[in-house]
Structure formats: C-alpha cells, structure tokens
Amino acid sequence: xxxxxxxxxxxxxxxxxxxxxxxxxxxxxxxxxxxxxxxxxxxxxxxxxxxxxxxxxxxxxxxxxxxxxxxxxxxxxxxxxxxxxxxxxxxxxxxxxxxxxxxxxxxxxxxxxxxxxxxxxxxxxxxxxxxxxxxxxxxxxxxxxxxxxxxxxxxxxxxxxxxxxxxxxxxxxxxxxxxxxxxxxxxxxxxxxxxxxxxxxxxxxxxxxxxxxxxxxxxxxxxxxxxxxxxxxxxxxxxxxxxxxxxxxxxxxxxxxxxxxxxxxxxxxxxxxxxxxxxxxxxxxxxxxxxxxxxxxxxxxxxxxxxxxxxxxxxxxxxxxxxxx
Amino acid sequence: xxxxxxxxxxxxxxxxxxxxxxxxxxxxxxxxxxxxxxxxxxxxxxxxxxxxxxxxxxxxxxxxxxxxxxxxxxxxxxxxxxxxxxxxxxxxxxxxxxxxxxxxxxxxxxxxxxxxxxxxxxxxxxxxxxxxxxxxxxxxxxxxxxxxxxxxxxxxxxxxxxxxxxxxxxxxxxxxxxxxxxxxxxxxxxxxxxxxxxxxxxxxxxxxxxxxxxxxxxxxxxxxxxxxxxxxxxxxxxxxxxxxxxxxxxxxxxxxxxxxxxxxxxxxxxxxxxxxxxxxxxxxxxxxxxxxxxxxxxxxxxxxxxxxxxxxxxxxxxxxxxxxxxxxxxxxxxxxxxxxxxxxxxxxxxxxxxxxxxxxxxxxxxxxxxxxxxxxxxxxxxxxxxxxxxxxxxxxxxxxxxxxxxxxxxxxxxxxxxxxxxxxxxxxxxxxxxxxxxxxxxxxxxxxxxxxxxxxxxxxxxxxxxxxxxxxxxxxxxxxxxxxxxxxxxxxxx
Lengths: 325, 494
What we know:
The complex is a heterodimer of chains A (325) and B (494). Chain A contains 15 helices and no strands.
C-alpha cells in the first residue's frame, strides 16, 4: 500500500483514540470533583499534566480550574491535542484516504466531526457527561465499524498498531500522574475518599468494573498490576503491546519472535520486557521511572514506524529529482 | 405539493408546454409528486441534503476563509430526456470527440489542418492550452482526449447546442452517480416506473478504458487516479472515482520516476504504475517539462510518457482544442476530418479577431454574452443584457485591446425545468454535461450526465461556484417504457 495512505490510517486511529482518552479523563475527573467538593480546585492541574501539554496550557491560561481546563482540553483549536483538534485531524486524514477506508468508516468519522463542530459553536456545557459519553461511544463505534467493514489487511493493521500504541501511552500516563497525586494524601487513607479517588483513577481508564471482577477490593498495588500487566484487560499496557506486536508481525510478514526492521525490533524488546515483568520489578525499579521509560520507548517505536514505513529512503542516482540533470 | 400557478414565462420548458400540458412521462412524475402528502417533498429534499453533508459530498470554495466546504445543492425533481432526443445527442457527441481527437493529434504532429488553411496557425499557437513539449508525441492508441464532459444547452426552440468542450479534466461525474443513488433512495417507485437508463457502470467502463491504454506487454496494468490533494475543489470526485474503480488515489509526492519508469512509494518499496488518470493541470504535472515551480509534479514524468512507459489520461496538451477561439472552428474541424456535417450545432459565435465580427459585437454588446477565451467556471464573462453601461464600456475597451482573447454569443433563452422553491415549483434555467469515454475499442456516452441548475431566480449562471445546483438526469429507455395506465394501478405513492 502507499506509504502516505498507511501513514494517514495510522494517525487517524491514534487521533480518535486520543480524543476518546481525553474525554474519559475529563469525565472521570469531573465526577470525582463533585464527590469531593474541596478538591475541586487542585484536581484539574493533574489532568492537564496527564495529556503532557501543561506548558502550552500555562502559556494560554495560567492556573487551572474547571472551566479553562475543559475549554483547553475539549474545544481549544490552539491545543493540537484537544478533542476538537484530534477529531478534526482524524477526519482530515480520513479524507485523504477515503477511497481506501470503507464508506461506513468515513461517514461515521465525518458525522463525528460535524457533531463536535456543532458543540464547539454552542456556548453552554449543561450536560458535559452526555457529551463525553457521546465522544467515547463515537470512538468505540468507529473501532467496531473499522473491524467489521474494512479488510483486515495491511491498512487495518497499521490502524490497529496506531491505536494500540496510543492507548498504551495514555494508560501509562494516567497511572503516572494519578498515582503520585493520590499516594501522598495520607489524610484520606482509610476514609471513604480513598475509595473514591482510586475509583476515579480506574474510571479514567474505563477499568473500574473489570478491576472489581478481577481483584475485588481496591488496592493501589493491584491497580498498578491491573493497568500495567493484565493480559486480558484491553486498556492495560501489556495487552496493548501484545496486540500491537501481532499487527506489526502481520505488516512485515515476520515470524513471531523475530524482526525485520528497527520498529519491529524495538516493539519486540518492549513486549519481552512486559512478558516477563512482575509487580515487584516495577516497584523495585520505581513506578514513576518505569512508567517514564515505558512512555519514552513507545515514542521511540512511533518514530521508528514513521521512518521505516511512512518516509522510506529509496532515492538513488537513477531516480529523477528536482535538480536539473 | 402542487404545480398550480407554475408559469413557463415564455421560456422553453422541458416539462410543460406553453399551455401547461406536460409530456406523458413527465406527467407520471407530476402525478406522483402531487399525490404526496403536504410537506412530504420538502422532508425528502431535506433528508437528501443531510445525507450529502454526512457523506461529505462537498466541494471547496476558493477564497472563503471559514466555511470552505459546501454541499452542491441538489434538487430532487429529476430532469427527463426522451430516448429519441438522446439517441441524436449520443451520435453527435461521438462524432465531435472523434473529430477533436484527430484535430489534437494533427496539431501536435503533421499540422495538415493548418497547412490546408482551415484553422489559422496563430490562433492555435497562441491558445492557452497549447503545449509545445507535446509536439511529436504519439500517445498510446493514438488517443489524446479519453474523458470529455461536453456542455450542452437548449434554446427557446428546444434545440440542443454545444456550448463548450471540456477536454482537460472535466469534473462533475461523481455528482451524477451520487445524485442517482440519492434518487433511488428517495423515490424508488417513480424510478421503477419510468424505465431509466443506468449510469452506475461508469466507473467500470472508465477502468476498462484506462487499462486498455497500458503499455504493451503489461499483463495486469496498475492504474491510479492522481489528485492535487484534499484542498482541490474536486477532491471528493477524485477520491470517489478511485474508490469506485478500486485503484490507488495518489498525490504527486507518492510518485517518482525511477530508472525511467513511473513508480509509487509503498510501505514495501517502489511499485510500477502503468496508467495515470490525472486530475491535475498540465502545467503542474512535471516541473522539468512544464512549470518549473510546480511542487505537485513528478520530475521526469513527461520523459517516461514520451517513451511509452506510462499512459496519461487525458494526454497533456488537449486544452488546445477546447480553447474558446478554436471552438468557433469545430464545425469546420468535423467536416475536415470526417467529411460529415455536425450533428449537434455550435452556439453561433462571433470571433472578435475577425473585423466584421468585432464590429458587430461592439455595436451589440447589450444583446450578447462576451467570454474571455482563457477563463472558465463563469469568470471573465459579460452578460450584456444584465450588465451596466459602465461594465459594457469596460468590456468594449478590453475587446479592442485584445481581440484574440474574446468571443461573443447571443444570449440564449436557456431551457427551464421545475425546481422546488420552498413549498412550490418554479422554472429555472439548466444546462447538461454528458460524459464521454473515448477508448481504443469503443466510445461510451454516459446516458444522462450532470444537469446544472441556476438556482437564483432568473439567473443564467449554472456554475457550482456561483450559486448553481444539480439535478438527476433521467434518459429513458427507447422501448419497454411504461404505459401510464399500468402505472396508475400502483398505489404505493412515490
């Protein structure tokens, strides 16, 4: 397939996944602040930190509160990672490959964009919860539409690779930020707030119910285990890396456990790390350090995918170039 | 919904004659429309518009900042063309494109038509679409213009004329296909009753024709559609055609000339391309042959093309034959190459570089439409009867300064058809753009084509960039048409 087309499919999936995650962060946070009134003021900054755009936010808005955090994360066109910007970028990418993806996928994304665009023009946000649910649903519908209407060939695997890398990154970020916000609040330990806060963390990753089924009681260590190492929970980092690797092998045609380029090699190394990791290792290493290095490695993989598949160097002396012969 | 009070206002109306009687088939349509409950037609019109928006069937408007995407307005009452009218048009269009292809080939090779004094040399060489690098080219199968969209109009008597030949990258065919789809969804019953010739196989015919052009010896030709990108006003169509044909849609950056062959960059390295349906202007195709500053082009493409390594549809340089000045000579061109009289006539045309014609034009500016020969899309035009005195003065000066660049035609009383305006029907002016595929083995004329409507009351400008809309065009089958009686027995409504 064309490199440009692969690139667009990969990115449009990343953008949709990103929009969904931002919607979930905000929704979970919003509900948490309603439960703990006095936390309202200082619970929005960590949210901005989760997205990694705190410097841009600082420059545009200064101190975080509910209104400006939501504005920045949802509608701000100056924030390339706001929900609006993500959905717009996803749609632009889809537009450039609409002959390649299915009409159903395109039509869904276009309607999704028109929905956000209309919301962006309405001033009041009376029902934020419904709005965020709509966004999450739109993302889920997109992924379901993709799976059931597009050939599960090379293009589909590029899309899933993008989605999984994005999701692994976001889950590790939310754990990173929240864990350190929550852990030092000794006052809350044993109080009813304790459960609420940890519950909000799980909800930010849509993990609350599945965690309950798996582990039952709320326990910070088990939450880390669940979000990092679980093999069955679809937003756990381990799950995402396993799935990304399957798609990568399908794209390159490599046997399982082998590699044929840098991107595949780096992804394989990260997978091996997770396959043999334990909770003890993670805490011995330091949770923050572990999460930080995971994020860095995901970024490196992303860059390698870009270099290997989307902008391959093929020119040689017999290739016509813009310079005169 | 009623046609009561519908007034033809003295124009040729394609549905009602001056006494208000409708043709039999159109009558069937009208009965169906009249039978609809109050406001049902508006509801269906609205539903069709929403479908267009959700599908993203839009065009980009140049020069507007915020709302750059617009849907091409669509009127849900179809336009009907009778089988016997169509049969003549089809023959006429085939005749015209055959002669024009011979003309283009001659211009870039032997130039017999110039030597025989039929078309003046200076007119050809000064045409905006003339491309010097094309001299001596031998395109695959000797075909230059594979895809044409000819603009036809009807005057007050109902006769069809050719208004313009679009021989470069005519657009609009995707609207024909999408409009038909919408109509089938909106009015399945009428559709079923009227026995309409299908248009849906256009993409397969296009693909077949493109593959015929592949260099000899290529077993499974790789064809692509080349678009300038998502900001081009016809991007939707480029992507639609690629999708419908199941071929890659490429941009300039995807293509490279490598070891003399045209290749595309894929995730698995370079892959050969055999046929390019290009929807990009000549000037931007290859910075080494045409405009050196083109960032969209593929360096070395023309060299590969001239060596027969790749086929281009349409060939570069075809614009020489749809120059508005050359247009005036098309009847002569048909007689010269085919020895036949034109089946469809040109609109009478005054060429301002001829002294007699210029004199007439300058004296009758208030009755004529003046067109700059190098402009299209309704720009650079003076509609005499609607223009102010100052505007006419200005055009008179321009004509005197550059006679070569202007032609003039009488203001045609373009035919009208009913369109839905709020809760009633009004007559609006239309044109018709059928699409022709000129292949190595046969020539195909898409039955129907794009009917463009000037939606503004009284307006004669049908271009989408200037307030035009479209309608589905139904060419009826010659035999086996329904009898009105059998129709009346169906009770389902529309």
